[in-house]
Design brief:
By secondary structure, the protein is α+β, with helices and mostly antiparallel strands. It has four domains: 2-57; 61-146, RNA Polymerase Alpha Subunit, Chain A, domain 2, CATH 2.170.120; 151-237, Beta Complex (RNA Polymerase Alpha Subunit, Chain A, domain 2); 244-335, RNA Polymerase Alpha Subunit, Chain A, domain 2 (Beta Complex), CATH 2.170.120. It contains seven helices and 23 strands. Strands 9, 16, 18, 19, 21 and 22 form a six-stranded mixed sheet that branches. Strands 2, 8, 11, 12 and 14 form a five-stranded mixed sheet that branches. The N and C termini lie far apart (123 Å).
Length: 337
């Protein structure tokens, strides 16, 4: 109905406005008439639009609005055990102007944590009462449960996964260090039971590394029910260029019974290893590895050949075994008479 009225007004206005110059008329006079007609048209058009809006804005409309929930003060010694929704979806009906205001500036819905169950429909209606010509038709969810438990604090180690790719011949001198290496977590007892470490979800990925590492990493927390004592940690690691070295080490027998004597052929193995350049000279007069065969391994062997075990004894150096030869050695058992 309103659309038809608007169309009739528009057609009536257009009938009064004629473009162009009438035959035999004065051109200047006709231009003036055209300008006046245009002004009349614009003025009338604005009136028509105003009337159309006035008619339609008084109609009844239905909209859905997300209204934020505002949690009341929680006692200092208690904490929530379950997540509460951030918003409540409200279906409203009413005239246009108050609905537009509610859509652009939705009010917060207060939640009293002393109530174990909150009727959101009643809470929303109380907030909407101040808006005339607006009714609440639906609220989702209509009820929420508020559960509180004793709040505790727990300190757990931080775990960070890393994926480091180094330039050729470069590597770590020691394992990366995280500082601080632990975090204090605060929350409800039931939320804390299964937490024995705090895992930073994003893996630290670096490529082309040839210098010492110093990175700041955010501590992620996807659980709004828990509070963390820090929001970032630093990771540091020493990186060095490595060079190759080798050493020949005699094979020993461990846990050898008294009266037994084991000899090996060959009697030693050659170990090739990588060493940081700054540690290379210090190792020239040291034997950084021990090579041995547990006597139990000989007792269990049926082939006459065993593979020796290699142990790093110079633990203050950042050494990495590249290879050793031979992989297996023959052995001979001699019983003392």
């Amino acid at each position: 109905m309103a659309d038809n009225s608007y169309q009739n007004i528009k057609e009536r206005i257009l009938s009064y406005v004629k473009k162009g110059t009438k035959p035999g008329g004065d051109e200047a006079e006709n231009k003036l008439v055209t300008k006046e007609g245009a002004l009349v048209f614009v003025f009338a058009y604005l009136i028509a639009i105003s009337l159309w809006f006035a008619v339609n804005l008084n109609g009844i409309f239905n909209i859905s609005v997300n209204m934020p929930l505002e949690i009341g003060d929680i006692p200092a010694d208690l904490a929530l055990t379950d997540n509460l929704p951030e918003y409540v979806e409200v279906s409203l009906s009413g005239t246009a102007l108050p609905l537009i205001n509610l859509y652009n500036n939705p009010p917060s819905i207060p939640i009293d944590v002393e109530d174990s169950e909150v009727n959101l429909f009643n809470q929303v209606r109380q907030q909407i009462n101040s808006y005339q010509e607006v009714e609440v038709s639906k609220v989702e969810p209509i009820l929420i449960s508020v559960n509180l438990e004793q709040k505790i604090t727990k300190k757990v180690p931080i775990k960070l996964n890393w994926d480091l790719e180094f330039e050729t011949r470069f590597g770590l001198i020691s394992e990366p260090q995280i500082s601080p290496d632990s975090v204090s977590i605060t929350g409800a007892v039931s939320q804390m039971t299964a937490i024995n470490e705090w895992v930073i979800e994003d893996t630290l990925k670096l490529s082309g590394v040839k210098d010492d590492i110093a990175q700041t990493i955010p501590v992620t927390n996807n659980n709004p029910l828990l509070e963390l004592s820090l929001d970032e940690v630093s990771l540091t690691a020493n990186v060095s260029e490595f060079t190759e070295n080798e050493v020949s080490v005699y094979i020993r027998t461990r846990n050898l019974p008294r009266g037994q004597n084991i000899t090996y052929n060959p009697s030693s193995i050659v170990i090739k290893y990588d060493v940081p350049l700054e540690q290379f000279s210090e190792l020239q007069n040291e034997t950084p590895y021990a090579v041995y065969v547990p006597y139990q391994k000989i007792q269990e062997d049926e082939t006459g050949f065993v593979t020796p075990d290699i142990e790093l004894v110079a633990t203050k150096y950042a050494l990495k075994i590249r290879s050793f030869q031979p992989k297996a050695v023959a052995y001979f058992s001699v019983v003392d008479q």
